[in-house]
Here is the input.
Amino acid sequence: MRKLFILLITITFYCAIVSCQGPSGPAGKDNPYDKQVSLTMDLQGRDGAYDQWHSFIAILKFDKRNYIGVDSIVFSVFTYVTDTTYNHIIELFDYDTGDSIPNSRIITNIDLKHAKYVESVNIFKYLPDKEITLGIRHKSSDPKNSAVIGNGYLFMFRK
Here is the structure.
């Protein structure tokens, strides 16, 4: 009975250690589930952007330094235009200062039939090393036609 009790305690202790550290050890050490972090930006219903910037908050209190080991960040958004003769222009910016995040701008003329997620280049080094309110703004290149935006994501990749 005593051996069984010691065995159960040993198994319980081992399971607690393994579950706290994930399937392959502590986070960041060969943990395949820790290589990518995705932050969702709920942008549904944010259409109607004509030739003026339509701006809104995407992520409050965003700070890239909070994601240890991240060396790449890509902005992705679902979009389409109603007529392919004009473009949809989308970019990230610091909502508090109004400053654009360099290289986050996406320009596309994908129509509804071919609507899809489009991506920016790696913007990690262009995001500030401080906490910001991350905003998104978008507009149409044609004042008579709107551009539609759907959900967006920040994909962050670790080394």
Q: What stands out?
A: The two ends are 49 Å apart (CA to CA). The chain has two domains: 1-33, 35-158. The longest strand covers residues 70-81. Residues 2-21 form the longest helix (20 residues).
